[in-house]
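Hey, I'm writing a tutorial for new members on how sequence and structure tokens pair up, and I'd like a real worked example in the thread rather than a made-up one. If someone can provide the structure for the chain below, I'll link this post from the tutorial.
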Amino acid sequence: MPDRDFHDTPPLGKEPGRARGTERSTELEREGERRRRRAQFLRDLAEARELRDRVQPRRAKAARLRHAMRMRTFRW
């Protein structure tokens, strides 16, 4: 079999058998997967905060009061 000539090679960035639409759908799937992982992480974080607040009620109350004070003194 003879060596391929440079005219037989596809242009850079164009893979044979891969349509342009599949690249976009792959990108959207990756973005969707990233959003699902982020949503799961935020749910887990909120659950951990609730658990910590139940286990340490005094610390949670102090944190709420500090947050309320910051909100009252914040200037828009």
